[in-house]
């Protein structure tokens, strides 16, 4: 059964798919990932609308190359580390901070430069995404002093342990999750979305990154949103594909900027249960800006659904709009 | 559809406010009248009922530090366990930062057990930086902040100066937070931030006061009667390891910068039960309570009960 919760968002009374907080069975406070709905969205649209949904097949995506340029203009800068300028790529960020803050081996050591560079990237990505919604993310040494983001935190194990066992344990409201070393781990339940990145080499310290989506950005997205690049591991980004009004058919248009040849995975998820995949597709793009168009239909109306976009290299979401057909 | 009434929206402009659940009987009218005519609190009784105990407290749940209310014991544990001598990538400031994180995480766990949520962070504020949600320390070298005498805490509702070393309570219209600077080296400096994301109402289990190397932080929580009443009787218990004077401040739930009343109370070492009455001609509204303890003490709030 679908339940809707009333809340106030940007001064207006709105419906949400989840409450603000939930008490878990272990007595922990969990902040679910929320989607804000329009007035016209009701239980019927969220059940029958999702059951009758007609999503595009792989061949039905209309992909057009707009430009050969990969343009970083319009991306945010970290307010905390403004001297780094606009950075999307991890290597560029690390090189810049190494010049500004050199290692002295008494106060400044390697891992601090790398986590500071990652934090500069994360600050900028949060700034871009949080124009529409709320994502919180942080990087640091996962052992000591530790990395904590909202209701997620890494256990304080050493880099040696992470390397030997191959994963870093992360405490979340869903329990302890094993986050694979040198990989990104999507931490997802029916009402929770988080992401963890782990980069450990055989040393005491290791670099951990946690990201948590408190609420999902609704379309239209008209400002550039970059994808998190944590040591070359690209995190997915989530948006709500929201029809502008109650309608049986919509046309969606995504503009993506890609730094190099890559496959971008698009996953459509049920907003009532994020783990339920409605459909997915993979799109191949090369360097440049692309327009990706597709249509969606349903009865009695197209419901708002969660769209996960997972690139594999430096990527920007330039816009994501939804129009009635 | 179901809904819970909160004092602030989840996002106000670009601010993620500290929120508090409000009772059904709350009306804005009561608060507006109180602002004009006042609300009064009087301490009726203070009684020492027991010794300083460390029962029913929590630990950080990840660092392996001893379960204790005494910060110095956690610092001793960190000194013995953080391998500054043997590991080249572990440097001196990290020992204290680890102890502070362990202590503050235990505090956050206790706050969560009582029913709500606070965010904590201690790290080097230069690089990699210290932030909690939408609050962060400006990234400057330890030398710069030490020479100037203060560091800058950036919030969406303005900047706050935090003394170096020292502490600063951050109260804006809808954010409640606390910042502290423990030590400043040439480049590195240890910054501490806590932000109350969701306020616990009438906590009934033990919550320690934030403590960063002897600098103690305030505890914020909600005061709420079960119905509208002209008089509320409060019974609260505070356990402290040293005699001290605490400050109790009540704030408006619709504008945290608006103080409704404040008083100081001396406590003996051990567990102290304080009973006080709050009166208002228009009914006592739900309020945000702030309790401040003295630096250098280790204390915890045992419970806070409101009648009716």
Instruction: Note the run of SSEs of chain B as H and E.
Output: EHEHHEEEHEEEEEEEEEEEEEEE
Radius of gyration of chain B: 20 Å
**Please, what is the oligomeric state?**
heterodimer
The secondary-structure class of chain B comes to alpha+beta
User: Residue share in helices of chain B?
Assistant: 10-25%
Which band does the percent of strand residues of chain B land in? Answer: 35-45%
User: Share of helix among residues of chain A?
Assistant: 10-25%
What's the CATH topology name of the largest domain in chain B? Jelly Rolls
Overall shape of chain B: it is: globular
Uncertain ranges of chain B: none
In order across it, which strands form the biggest sheet of chain B?
Answer: 2-18-15-20-11
Reading the helices and strands of chain A in chain order gives EEEEEHEHHEEEHEEEEEEEEEEEEEEEE
Largest sheet of chain B, in brief, is: 5 strands, antiparallel
Q: Quickly count the helices of chain B.
A: 4
Word description of this protein:
The complex is a heterodimer of chains A (325) and B (308). Chain A has a domain at 82-215. Chain A is 14% helix and 44% strand. Chain A has helices spanning 43-51, 90-100, 110-129, 159-165, and strands at residues 5-9, 12-16, 22-23, 29-30, 36-37, 62-67, 134-141, 148-149, 152-154, 167-172, 175-180, 183-189, 192-199, 207-215, 217-218, 225-226, 229-230, 233-234, 237-241, 249-258, 262-270, 273-285, 288-297, 305-310, 315-324. In chain A, the strands form seven sheets. Chain A has a five-stranded antiparallel beta sheet with strand order 6-23-20-25-16. In chain A, strands 15-19-24-21-22 form a five-stranded mixed beta sheet, with no helix packed on it. A four-stranded antiparallel beta sheet of chain A has the order 7-14-13-12. The two termini of chain A are 30 Å apart. In chain B, a hairpin with a 2-residue loop joins strand 12 (211-212) and strand 13 (215-216). Chain B has 308 residues and is of the alpha+beta class. The relative contact order of chain B is 0.20. Chain B has two domains: 28-51 and 200-307, Sandwich (Jelly Rolls); 71-198, no CATH class. The two termini of chain B are 30 Å apart. Chain B has four helices and 20 strands. In chain B, helix 2 (71-81) packs across helix 3 (93-113). Chains A and B meet through strand 1, helix 3 and strand 7 of A and strand 1, helix 3 and strand 3 of B. Strand 1 of chain A pairs parallel with strand 1 of chain B, so a sheet runs across the interface.
């Amino acid at each position: 059964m679908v339940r809707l919760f009333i809340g106030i968002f940007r001064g207006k009374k709105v419906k949400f798919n989840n409450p603000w907080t939930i008490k878990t069975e272990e007595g922990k406070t969990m902040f679910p990932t929320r989607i804000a709905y329009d007035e016209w969205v009701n239980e019927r649209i969220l059940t029958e609308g999702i059951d009758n949904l007609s999503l595009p097949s792989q061949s039905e995506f209309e992909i057009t190359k707009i430009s050969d340029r990969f343009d970083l203009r319009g991306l945010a800068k970290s307010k905390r580390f403004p001297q780094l300028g606009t950075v999307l790529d991890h290597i560029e960020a690390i090189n810049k901070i190494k010049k500004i803050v050199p290692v002295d081996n008494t106060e400044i050591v390697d891992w601090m430069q790398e986590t500071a560079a990652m934090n500069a990237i994360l600050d900028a990505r949060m700034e871009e995404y949080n124009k529409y919604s709320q994502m919180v993310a942080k990087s640091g040494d996962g052992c000591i002093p530790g990395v904590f983001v909202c209701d997620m935190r890494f256990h304080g194990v050493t880099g040696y342990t992470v390397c030997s066992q191959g994963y870093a344990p992360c405490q979340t409201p869903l329990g302890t999750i094993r986050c694979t070393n040198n990989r990104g781990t999507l931490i997802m339940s029916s009402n929770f979305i988080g992401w963890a990145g782990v980069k450990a080499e055989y040393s005491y310290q290791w670099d951990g990154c946690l990201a948590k989506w408190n609420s999902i950005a609704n379309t239209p997205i008209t400002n550039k949103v970059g994808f998190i690049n944590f040591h070359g591991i690209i995190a997915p980004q989530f948006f709500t594909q929201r029809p502008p009004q109650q309608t049986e058919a919509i046309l969606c248009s995504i503009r993506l900027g890609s730094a190099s040849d890559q496959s971008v995975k698009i996953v459509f998820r049920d907003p009532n249960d994020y783990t339920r995949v409605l459909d997915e597709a993979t799109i191949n793009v090369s360097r440049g800006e692309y327009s990706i168009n597709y249509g969606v239909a349903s009865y009695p109306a197209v419901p708002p659904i969660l769209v996960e976009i997972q690139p594999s290299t430096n990527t920007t979401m330039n816009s994501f709009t939804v129009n009635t057909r | 559809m179901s809904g819970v009434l909160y004092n602030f929206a989840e996002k106000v402009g670009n601010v993620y406010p500290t929120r508090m659940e409000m009772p059904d009987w709350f009306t804005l009218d009561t608060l507006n009248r109180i602002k004009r005519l006042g609300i009064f609190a009087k301490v009726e009784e203070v009684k020492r009922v027991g010794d300083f105990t460390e029962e029913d407290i929590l630990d950080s749940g990840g660092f392996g530090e001893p379960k204790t209310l005494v910060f110095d014991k956690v610092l001793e544990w960190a000194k013995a366990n953080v391998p500054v001598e043997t590991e080249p990538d572990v440097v001196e400031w990290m020992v204290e930062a680890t102890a502070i994180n362990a202590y503050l995480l235990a505090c956050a766990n206790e706050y969560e057990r009582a029913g709500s949520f606070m965010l904590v962070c201690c790290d080097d504020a230069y690089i990699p930086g210290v932030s909690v949600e939408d609050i962060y320390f400006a990234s400057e070298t330890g030398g710069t902040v030490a020479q100037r005498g203060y560091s800058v805490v950036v919030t969406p509702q303005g900047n706050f100066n935090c003394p170096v070393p020292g502490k600063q309570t951050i109260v804006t219209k809808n954010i409640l937070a606390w910042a502290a600077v423990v030590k400043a080296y040439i480049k590195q400096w240890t910054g501490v931030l806590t932000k109350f994301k969701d306020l616990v109402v009438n906590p009934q289990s033990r919550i320690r006061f934030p403590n960063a190397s002897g600098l103690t932080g305030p505890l914020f929580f909600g005061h709420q009667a079960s119905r509208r009443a002209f008089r509320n009787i409060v019974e609260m218990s505070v356990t402290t390891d040293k005699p001290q004077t605490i400050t109790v401040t009540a704030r408006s739930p619709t504008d945290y910068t608006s103080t409704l009343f404040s008083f100081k109370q001396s406590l003996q070492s051990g567990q102290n039960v304080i009973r006080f009455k709050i009166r208002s001609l228009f009914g006592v509204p739900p309020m945000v309570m702030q309790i401040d303890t003295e630096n250098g003490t280790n204390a915890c709030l045992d419970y806070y009960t409101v009648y009716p």
